[in-house]
Specification:
It is built from six helices and seven strands; from the N terminus they run αβαβαβαβαβαββ. By secondary structure, it is of the alpha/beta class.
Length: 186
């Protein structure tokens, strides 16, 4: 999905406040959030961008090149779970300042377990679409759209989990389609 403009502006400011240098993006799509992140990072900042769909990434690549930030991005056309597991197994635990997750709702819990290992203590993991079209505030039987209903319970389950996860401090922001920030505590 595309990142909302207000969410992009917020993430840009957050990355600058954090002085983030080493980041990861899970789920790139056409690269708008990737562009936003790369522009916010210092000249020597790096982004590991993971997405199965290389064609979607290549759609946004001309804009990334025009902005002169292609050198900050390492795009990996792959399944995110295998890349994250490889990073954990190769000693990258606690090495990322910021991780942005814009994946399918049914994968968020799996990504969370690995992202918490990879982000440093005090680092941020940001999850997109955690209000899921506002459906998380509705009773399941009141959600009429089949597509929204098919993923709603995954989002509700994820939101409940991160709220009580003792490894992170979390906050759901009502920008875009919902942005959950998790700061790793230890």
């Amino acid at each position: 999905m595309n990142l909302a403009v207000d969410e992009a502006q917020f993430l840009s400011m957050l990355l600058k406040i954090m002085n983030a240098k080493k980041t990861m993006e899970i789920g790139v799509f056409t690269g708008y959030s990737l562009l936003t992140t790369a522009l916010a990072l210092p000249e020597d900042g790096k982004i590991l961008a993971i997405d199965r769909d290389k064609e979607a990434y290549e759609f946004g690549l001309p804009y990334i090149k025009k902005a002169g930030i292609e050198h900050k991005i390492n795009f990996v056309p792959s399944d995110a779970s295998s890349v994250l597991n490889d990073l954990v197994n190769s000693g990258e635990e606690g090495s990322f300042d910021f991780i942005f997750v814009d994946g399918w709702p049914n994968d968020c819990l799996k990504f969370h377990e690995l992202a918490v290992k990879l982000v440093k203590a005090g680092g941020i993991i940001a999850y997109d679409n955690t209000l899921w079209y506002g459906s998380v505030a509705q009773a399941d039987n009141k959600v009429e759209d089949e597509y929204i209903r098919s993923f709603r319970n995954f989002v509700v389950e994820f939101n409940k989990f991160v709220t009580v996860d003792p490894r992170v401090e979390s906050s759901i922001l009502s920008i875009g389609d919902g942005l959950t920030l998790c700061r790793r505590l230890y």
